[in-house]
User: Fold this.
Amino acid sequence: MRPLVLGGICLCLAGAAQAADWPADAAVDPNAQNRTLTPRVVVNSGRLEWEPHKRDLTPWPTLSHLDRRATPRPQQANYNPPLRGDPARGREIAMDPARGNCIACHTLPGESWPGSVGQLLLGYKQRGVSDAYVYQQIYDRRVTNPNTVMPPFGTLGVLSDQEIRDLTAYVQSLE
Amino acid sequence: MCKVWNETVLALLRVGGLLAAFIGVAWAQAPAPYRDMDLPMPDYEPHVRGDMRLSKTYPYWRDRSRLDWRLAGDPEENWKLNWKFMDPPFNQSVHGGHFALERGEALYKTLNRDGRFAACLGAGRAGLKGLRTRFPQYRQDLGRVAGLEAVIEHCAAAQGEVLQNGSYDNSAVSLYIASHSQGMPIRIDVSRGPLKEAYERGRQLYHTKAGRLNFACSSCHTRNIGQLVRGSRITTPYGDVTHYPVYRTQYFLQSLHLRMMECNLDTGVQPLLPGSQAYTDLEVFLTALSNGYPVSVPAERN
Assistant:
């Protein structure tokens, strides 16, 4: 009897679980490492092959019309001083494509191939801006600018509280 | 006791199942979930000349055969050519796209032995000439708007052949079909019917933020054209689809929908399957922005 009941639970919840997670037309294999798939084109083949992507992207909303998950709304950060951030660690995070990747859009000292989309961050040390303000800009800039291109790193769970503290310390140290 | 309990659970589960189905229906009718939109939206024109009001680079790449060599050779300036310096006839080099074209020709001729494949694709008396310029289109047999690769998959399946959307062979056949429209301008009408609806959905999707970093296509390709992202200059969405499927020097043959998957993966958005409705809507929007711009294959991109 027990396996049948378990089967019943699986059947009943299948529809709900699917709708609560990624949409049906997403390139996902729930059993693959990281779940998110990337296509692999095989020469002279009528079949498309798939490989696991380096990161699981299923937790965030997609462009699918079937995706019923809402994007988290702009969020005020719950920042508590003191900062306790390490600018050296912050710099590492800013240059790391897997974490902050700030360098993709911002020009930062001592690094080639920068971006020019983001605001100039040089000279923050002299600007006298509060840590709380800088923390909020990284955590969720939509609060102060609804049309910003900058990702809400805190609200979307991309960076942790400590990582944002380290980045804040790094930005505040820029001459 | 255990049996009674189990039956109760089963009964509850049945009710739960109904409830889940009910919620499913409610979901389908519920208002769209919250998304950040990249606003304001510019006044897009469903014609390539609309770029004159967006990036204003159109005069630089309007005629592929007469691009400015000096711009093409300057890594700081070549983005203004919208990468057309890798399209024929400016780019005459032989590359993987030419091998794909040969493969596509062989596959097409096998599939079309009795003419049924061409008829299914919608080739009229003109044959394959100009066929590429009329896609995406509304398909009675599919009951929806579909791109050329989706229709190739469908028409091959009708003959028992597997040519999955996005596969090398599917893109090779698409490339062969496109080669018969060489130099002919894209011509899709998005002013009415299902194509108009798809265009409108595509336009909205283009400005819809998604994924781990909450980016929309337009965050870069409308808002920040000409700016640097990790050392690369961002280009215009106008006139961008006429070289697909494209030979990627790092990736073999790539259909437009596979390119969208790559765009999604690069910006931390969970990609969708080739042929999905969202990608098809985006394809309609982007193809409309190439209206009036000639097809040129096989092309290369980095």
